[in-house]
Design a protein that fits this description.
It contains 6 helices and 5 strands. It has 143 residues and is an alpha/beta fold. A 5-stranded parallel sheet has the order 2-1-3-5-4, with helices on both faces. The longest helix has 13 residues. It binds D-ribose (RB5).
Length: 143
């Protein structure tokens, strides 16, 4: 699967680790920045990833900032984006199974790299259940 990933300065170190996780899993990774811990504006990087998901050049996206909150707010402005802000494995899995999340948002100042990696593995490996859940997400999102 091709995955777009981006961060702001608060998520830069975790992004490097999660790119390794995705590559280890055999996924193709498109790095949409940023490139250092110098201060940047997270909406610019949320847009870079969401554009790739909306135009289908990437199947999914991963966004990392300090809390994950700003990235998830910015990403969810687009009706085709279902961005899930998760801090543990259960909601990461359920965001795929019930909500067909196409973007995962993580807070690098909230969770450590070990947990973030496990959440990302779970999120990448979980299929959407469809059925009644499709009817529900169609009420707020363009699938
Ligand atoms: C940047 O300091 C911080 O505000 C950002 O990484 C993020 O947490 C915003 O939601």
């Amino acid at each position: 699967m091709k995955v777009a990933i981006a961060c702001d300065h608060g998520g830069f170190v975790l992004k490097l680790e999660l790119m390794r996780v995705l590559k280890d899993m055999g996924h193709e990774v498109l790095d949409c920045g940023c490139d250092s811990e110098a201060s940047v504006d997270y909406p610019d990087f949320a847009a870079a990833v969401c554009d790739r998901v909306v135009d289908s050049s990437c199947a999914r996206g991963v966004l990392i900032c300090g809390t994950g909150i700003g990235m998830s707010m910015a990403a969810n402005r687009d009706k085709k984006i279902r961005a899930a802000l998760c801090h543990e494995i259960f909601t990461a899995r359920m965001s795929r199974e019930h909500n067909n999340a196409n973007v995962l948002c993580l807070g690098a100042r909230v969770i450590g790299p070990g947990l973030a990696g496990e959440m990302l593995r779970e999120w990448m490996n979980t299929e959407f259940a469809g059925g009644r859940h499709l009817r529900r997400i169609e009420k707020f999102s363009s699938c």
